[in-house]
Amino acid sequence: MTSAVATAVIERAPLSASERERLAPLAASAVVDSMQRLGSPDAGISPTWVGARLVGPALTVLTAAGDNQIVHAALDVVQPGEVIVLNGFGDTTRALIGDLIAERALSLGVAGFVVDGCVRDVDAIRELGLPVFARGVTPAGPYKNGPGVIGGAVAIGGVAVLTGDVVVADADGVVFIPRAQLDTIVDLAEQKLESEARKRASIRASMG
Q: Which residues bind Mg(2+) per the record (predicted)?
């Protein structure tokens, strides 16, 4: 068997309480519009259960297709509030996480998962309330041979993601905000939502 290879995870900072408070009401659509329509992976990455909502900084993980050995290693270094963002090369033949990993992740304070690959046990994951966004669902379990990398750059649905980038995900899908641009993007998204609220009120007034 090939051992998993975990890189030294870079120093990373959690979101502040004020950052989380501002991000909480933002729709993924408003965020991606504020990024000039960039930063959102293809439509194959979608919520695995209705009502899933996710905000948090990414811990990036790269794994061999159909193999989840490195996911277990990632759970040893993940910090509370982080989102495990897993590049499984879009493979849809094997599930990379299931209910046992989800339950352990939840006990560690993991905010959720974004998986460019498949997951399983979605009913149990929904009951746990852990937000999981993935390319697909299959009952077939993974291999555990490795290799994999924690903390490096990954590609999720055609979007490059770094550890520390901020994940916003809801019923419409997922958006990744580069951490250095967080304040600017949040400002723009808030302005967009305020503008849309005014337009909505005007439309409703005209109908009354």
A: 121
